[in-house]
Amino acid sequence: MPTLKSLRAQAQRAEPFACLTCYDATTARLLMRAGVHLLLVGDTAAEVILGFTRTIDMPLDIAVALTAAVKRGAPDCVVMADMPFMSYHTTDAEAIRNAGRFLVEGHADIVKLEADASFAPLIAQMVRAGIPICGHIGSRPQRAAITSGYVSAGKSTDDADQILRDAIALEQAGCSMLLIEAVPETLTAAVLKATTIPVVGIGAGNACHAQVLVLQDLLGMTDNPPRFAQPAAQLGKAIEDAGKTWVTTVAARKVGLPANE
Ligand code: KIV
After folding, report:
1. pTM (whole model) above 0.90
2. Does 260 map to a domain?
3. Is 105 designated active site?
4. How far away, in angstroms, is 250 Cα from ligand 1 center?
5. Which residue of the set 114, 181, 240, 261 is catalytic?
């Protein structure tokens, strides 16, 4: 059964581990059986589960409840909870309390927050409180209002240097893991060289210790998946077909066995 410790050892042995987003107990159970090591209850739930167009619309209470559901479904996976926008940006006390909720109420194993080096003191306090933290660096979708949309990161030398400094500062603050999103492979390589904790990548090249995708992209359920997300199934089509079959079955009055027999 994977733990933060075993994932770190696996990363040190250069054996990549598999991560996927997940937002419900049933799917979590199936992914656990599939051998996925880490399930991320991402704030992408705002989009793929709740139907918003922005991850910043993820409500904290729902994020905590979905995290608990995923852990109930997959007790043998490492479950990572994603802190929603504004749940860690006001006061340190509120941020630490909210992070703690994911451990206590959500039964998460680790809590992720989008961060740069300026978050290092807050992260150090969370770690001091006993909360394992993953620092999400590179492209940070919760800043889409500033960057005018979801954008890649680390393309200019200045930006890449800053992200490298972020990675180092977050490890020094006590992060147990980093997640790096949508950066050039050269920057990923520099981060891997400069840090010792597992680095999970998404759109950051194959060198990372682990890879994560939004589950609906992997399952072929999203209309415009990112370029790096190769669907491994076509569940979108399968669900549509099943829905059509149900519509015709109901219309033909051919549903199951006769009632009460
Ligand atoms: O919220 C999320 O699902 C994420 C992944 C895209 C990495 O942070």
Report:
1. yes
2. no
3. no
4. 38
5. 181
- Can you give the pLDDT of all 261 residues of the chain as single tens digits? 999 999 999 999 999 999 999 999 999 999 999 999 999 999 999 999 999 999 999 999 999 999 999 999 999 999 999 999 999 999 999 999 999 999 999 999 999 999 999 999 999 999 999 999 999 999 999 999 999 999 999 999 999 999 999 999 999 999 999 999 999 999 999 999 999 999 999 999 999 999 999 999 999 999 999 999 999 999 999 999 999 999 999 999 999 877 666
Q: Specify the DSSP class assigned to residue 41.
A: E
How many whole angstroms separate alpha carbon 59 and alpha carbon 153? 26
Q: Give domain status of residue 84, yes or no.
A: yes
The tokens for 261 are 């027999």
The CATH number of whichever domain residue 218 belongs to comes to 3.20.20.60
Give residue for tokens 């995923």. Answer: 70
Amino acid (1-letter code) at residue 102: F
User: Residue 42 CA: which ligand 1 atom is closest?
Assistant: 1
- Residue 106: partners with Cβ closer than 8 Å, 6 or more residues away: 41, 63, 64, 65, 67, 68, 71, 79, 81
Range of the structural domain that residue 152 is part of: 4-251
